[in-house]
Amino acid sequence: MSRLFEELDYRKTPIGELSLRRRRGLATGVDVYEIKLGDEFLMTSQFTASEIALARLGLAEVDSDCPLDVAVGGLGLGYTAHEVLQHEAVASLTVVDALEAVIDWHRSHLLPLGAGLTADPRCTFVHGDFFKLSATPAGFDPAHPGRRFHAILVDIDHSPGVLLDAANAAFYQPAGLRRLAAHLHPGGVFALWSNERPDDDFTGRLAGIFAAARAETVTFPNPLQGNEFTQTVYLAKA
């Protein structure tokens, strides 16, 4: 492979063929890391504003003076987890990902943020299906069944209506959201990333389960298309 493009790893997974690629941005001279599922782009390091905002907005909503226990659903390139660890109030971070390859890429430092995440004693990776774990009383931390969190931040599906796996659909319905809320401390926050603009129906669904709910838009420049792009972070407080 050349310095301009390299496939760093390729794995067959239960949801399809997963690949990690690095390419050099010709206009910027900066390396861009991309994860693809088949022919579909799952994530890229070229656009990270909303992944970082997911952590910032979610933690800003938490109503607690004690050290914070945070769970992240979806490790990806690590930008949400990395931002969580920038907050001194965070005592622990549990990151759940169903794709073992993604965890491996961070542990082996194939991804730029992997070294920092794995070196931080507050950060623990859990290989598991976030949605299935959310539906159980045991929750997200195998070492401490039933553990509750001050914030649960999720970035897995493209949006509440555009899913990587149809089996995830139940999570976004009232019963699934109610089971998720049971894993939060009182005053805790559920924050959800979406690739699309706000969905009023989903915000209303959140409001029917949580004490308060709203959608925050995150807009950033897209130089590839010469315009701006808007994504969404949903925020719901227990």
Sequence-ordered SSE layout with sheet pairings:
Layout lengths: L4 E9 L2 E9 L6 E7 L2 E5 L4 H12 L7 E6 L5 H6 L5 E8 L2 H8 L6 H6 L3 E5 L2 H5 L14 E6 L19 H8 L2 E11 L5 H10 L2 E11 L4 E11 L1
Parallel strand pairs: 5-6, 5-8, 6-7, 8-9
Antiparallel strand pairs: 1-2, 2-3, 3-4, 9-11, 10-11
Helix pairs in contact: 6-7
Structure description:
The chain is of the alpha/beta class and 238 residues long. It has a single domain, classed as Vaccinia Virus protein VP39 (Rossmann fold). The chain has helices spanning 49-60, 79-84, 100-107, 114-119, 130-134, 174-181, 200-209; strands spanning 5-13, 16-24, 31-37, 40-44, 68-73, 90-97, 123-127, 149-154, 184-194, 212-222, 227-237. The strands form two sheets. It has a seven-stranded mixed β-sheet with strand order 7-6-5-8-9-11-10. Strands 1-2-3-4 form a four-stranded antiparallel β-sheet, with no helix packed on it. The longest helix has 12 residues, at 49-60. It is globular, with a radius of gyration of 17 Å.
Quick take:
This protein is an alpha/beta fold and 238 residues long. The chain contains seven helices and eleven strands.
Please, how many helices? 7
What general form does the structure show? globular
Helix content: 10-25%
Instruction: Report the radius of gyration as a whole number of Å.
Output: 17 Å
CATH superfamily: Vaccinia Virus protein VP39
Give keywords:
single chain, alpha/beta, four-stranded antiparallel beta sheet, 238 residues, 7 helices, seven-stranded mixed beta sheet, Rossmann fold, globular
